[in-house]
Amino acid sequence: MTQPLPPYAPLRKPPAREGGLVADLVVGWLLFAMAAVLGVVASFVGAFSMMMTDACPSPADARSAPCDDERVMAGITLASTAHWLFLVVAFGVMMWLSFRPRPIFWIPLVALLLGAGTFAGGEMLAYSGIPH
Fold first, then answer.
1. Do 59 and 66 touch, CB atoms closer than 8 A?
2. Residue 42 domain-assigned?
């Protein structure tokens, strides 16, 4: 005689978010929005950093050293765009962790710190291409 199949177990629901984790979601996404606004400001300021080449002597002036244009452009590009890479990665990680009961508030803070570091590094790189 054959045995009947056991009934299937119902699918488990994912654990519900508690009040603290809901607040963490709200704070995390607000911090991400703030980081995105600061990213726009950093891109704008980085683009205005091109004015530091106004101090470069003209090529006809043989008395002073010329600017290192490639270094200046690399620094301005780094300062204007590198923080967007961190924000895109932070967005992906936050989306992934939003569906799990894990805190996400720290992700935009890390992206903000890394973006500020690359902005400062890019500005220093651009400034190092200007003769003093």
1. yes
2. yes
Encoded tokens for 64: 């002073």
Could you give the maximum distance between any two Cα atoms of the chain, in Å? 104
Residue 125's identity, in one-letter code, is: L
Looking at the chain, the whole-number percentage of residues with pLDDT higher than 90 is: 50
Residue 86 has a CB neighbour count (10 Å cut-off) of 22
Residue 28 is part of which domain span?
A: 19-50+69-128
Could you read off the pLDDT of 82-104 as tens digits, one per residue? 999 999 999 999 999 988 888 89
- Give residue-wise pLDDT tens across range 99-126: 888 889 999 999 999 999 999 999 999 9
Number of domains in the chain: 1
CA-CA distance, 82 to 112, in Å (whole number)?
A: 11
CA angle in degrees (0–180, nearest 5) for 108-104-27:
75
